[in-house]
Amino acid sequence: MLDFSLIISLLISLGTGVLSGFLTRDETSVFFDTIVKAPLTPPGFVFPIVWTVLYALMGYSAWLVWKGNCKEKRLSLFIYALQLIFVFLWPIIFFIYRQFEIAFFWIILLWLMIIAMLILFYRCERKAGLLQIPYLIWVTFASYLTFAICVLN
To answer: 116-142 pLDDT, tens per residue?
Structure first.
């Protein structure tokens, strides 16, 4: 039987991505097509697919930590919530306000929070931490894309 708390955790995480995507949807497609992009920039359809998977992994990992009983659970979930706020705001800074330099520094702060979250999640529930590795890799790649857009535009 599916645990209701898992559904809530997934809704929080996926809802963050959906709301951010909804707020930036008009700017994303039109604006992204007009800027000079970095080499290795994937086609636009890749981004929502990858982000959906990553948000689902975040929600599932947070649920594993929440269900667990480790001494760093509160700190882990606080860092999780903080990085959710940062990942929610990044596309707004980048696409709506078009502040590439701020977006780059913002994503570096996000990257540091993801590392902290990954470590804390790993300490609480090994699987929860390991499930955040794809997120760290993707945000590393997104940092490269953001930096390149800063330089090229």
So the answer is: 999 999 999 999 999 999 999 999 999
Q: Which residue do the tokens 């963050």 mark?
A: 16
What is the structure's pLDDT at 1?
Answer: 66
Rounded to the nearest angstrom, the gap between the alpha carbon of residue 144 and the centroid of all alpha carbons in its chain is: 15
Q: Which token pair is 51?
A: 């982000």
Q: Would the pTM count as exceeding 0.85?
A: yes
Instruction: Please provide the CATH number assigned to the domain covering 4-152.
Output: 1.20.1260.100
Burial class (CB within 10 angstroms; exposed 0-12, middle 13-18, buried 19+) of 40: exposed
SS (H, E, C) the chain: CCCHHHHHHHHHHHHHHHHHHHHHHHHHHHHHHHCCCCCCCCCCCHHHHHHHHHHHHHHHHHHHHHHCCCCCHHHHHHHHHHHHHHHHHHHHHHHHCCCHHHHHHHHHHHHHHHHHHHHHHHHHCHHHHHCCHHHHHHHHHHHHHHHHHHHHC
Q: Where are the domains of the chain?
A: 4-152
